[in-house]
């Protein structure tokens, strides 16, 4: 089973960063999106072809194609030409070359700031106002990651939510009766659940704090520590926000509890690839992990006998009232600058982002969260207990998304690079180290005219 949508995010980090640079340079001289008039919808019997670029392949490609083709119920003579395996780099080149698709689907929301600010994705406000679309049917955090500085140049198609997975058999064997809700509980449970070989090396880790590794990414942990990347002034806010210091100090406590960095790294080196059947959690080498809802599909396919459950991720002990909050991101869909059939493209976007049955079919097929509130309550939605946890978090009102910037994922990479150095003990002063990261990110923001 191939990875679902954002499960590819880790593998796409380098490629996406390169694409962000390319699209910024390619579109820096691009004209602003076409004026305030929405293109007319096609007639019911009009014959035309809508070209769609996406990164979907294999089984997932079929699921999404079926969703796109639901538009034919309204427009039977419209053909959907869905070209899969098209990444952001290829999309950028098509826009720059004046031959873009009518509809663009991207897994990588961190490029949205550049897409919007350069006009590479058209402003959807005229369409939304004309058709009286109520955006409140989409959670606020999801609305946030599909717009930039008030400009809505994309819509959410499906969402990911990150939470906590735990091995029920391991919990029972060690007398742990419930998943940890706070970082103090996580620390104690990690100690209880960790097992060692005769030579002192780690046999099973209660929780592996290495970062970046699997879904241990700064952006996924941050909401549970109250740690935003940017302050109200639009500048990097790592050194002055207590959440970041608390997060990294907690990470160090976990590493120390497992026996230190070298022992943790040796154990980590023996774990399988995140999206293979040898994933450490699926193989019983990790008792607890952070991950997205899509992991349920991997487990069903690759480790069907695993006895596990899911829960919201633990939060900083001093913010226990925030338990149930979660990081969210997702697939975005847009009309590129220069699209030949923008009116028809908008009709297709409405179909796959707002139609409940279409969303539910794709969510069931891809094991991602459907992005509207109505689709969450559909009786046709697959409600396996482990998956339902993520639906509940999505509907909790406590979602947090990445703050959109014009520098793509450069700020995320900077923090994850810092985390790797910090956990290795090569950062002697946490505050001073975070100040350097702030300066690096702020310099990049300044170059793009952001952050004041």
From TrEMBL:
One of its GO terms (cellular component) is ATP-binding cassette (ABC) transporter complex, substrate-binding subunit-containing. One of its GO terms (biological process) is maltose transport. One of its GO terms (molecular function) is maltose binding. SUPFAM superfamilies: Periplasmic binding protein-like II (SSF53850). Gene3D superfamilies: Periplasmic binding protein-like II. InterPro entries: SBP, TAT_signal. Residues 1-30 form the signal peptide. Keywords: Signal, Sugar transport, Transport. It holds the Pfam family SBP_bac_8. PANTHER family: MALTOSE-BINDING PERIPLASMIC PROTEIN (PTHR30061), MALTOSE_MALTODEXTRIN-BINDING PERIPLASMIC PROTEIN (PTHR30061:SF50). Belongs to the bacterial solute-binding protein 1 family. This is Multiple sugar transport system substrate-binding protein. It comes from Amycolatopsis pretoriensis. The lineage of its organism: Bacteria, Bacillati, Actinomycetota, Actinomycetes, Pseudonocardiales.
